[in-house]
Amino acid sequence: MTIDITTNSAGETVKFGQNIGSQLKGGEVIAFYGPLGSGKTHLIKGIVAGLGAEDAANEVTSPTFVLVNEYSGRLEVYHLDAYRLDSIAQFEQIGFDDYCHPGSVVLIEWADKIEQALAGINYIKIELSHLGQTARTIRITNAPDYIHF
């Protein structure tokens, strides 16, 4: 199943992410695709807030240089950024497999760079694109039935 959503501001994108995060049960891997400035980090801020992390609006930043940020909410949240990775081997070296367990949610920005490593994993794919100055199209593929948009 594929769902397309349009948000008209960064705030709407965050709020949409909160809705998603509030419904996650654990064990999900979510791969984010989209160009720079398409709203990936705003959506992730919302998801992390929906998972109950304290001060998600200020705490959540893209882990471009540190590669992995960890947040605590009702589940463990691992926010990975593949932007600076040069190979699948580098992705595997950061411990991706260790982050994937029933008590966690794994969020991967720039997933197109490591998509090969996701082969065989049942992951949620979220593609973001610019629709205008502040509007974004969010396409979600392979969402579990328990998430309602």
Task: List its salient traits.
Rossmann fold; 26% helix; single chain
In short:
With 149 residues, this protein is of the alpha/beta class. Helices cover 26% and strands 28% of the residues.
Can you walk through the features of this model?
It contains five helices and seven strands. It is α/β, with parallel strands linked by helices. The chain has one domain (9-55, 69-138): P-loop containing nucleotide triphosphate hydrolases (Rossmann fold), CATH 3.40.50.300. The chain has a seven-stranded mixed sheet with strand order 1-7-6-2-5-4-3, with helices on one face. A hairpin with a 5-residue loop joins strand 6 (124-130) and strand 7. The two termini are 12 Å apart. The model has no long low-confidence stretch (mean pLDDT 90).
Kindly identify the CATH topology.
Rossmann fold
Count of runs of 4 or more consecutive helical residues: 5
Return the average pLDDT rounded to an integer: 90
CATH class type = Alpha Beta
Trace the largest sheet across and list its strands.
1-7-6-2-5-4-3
Tell me the domain tally.
1
Taking all Cα atoms into account, the compactness measure Rg is 14 Å
Helix fraction by DSSP (H/I, runs of at least 4): 25-40%
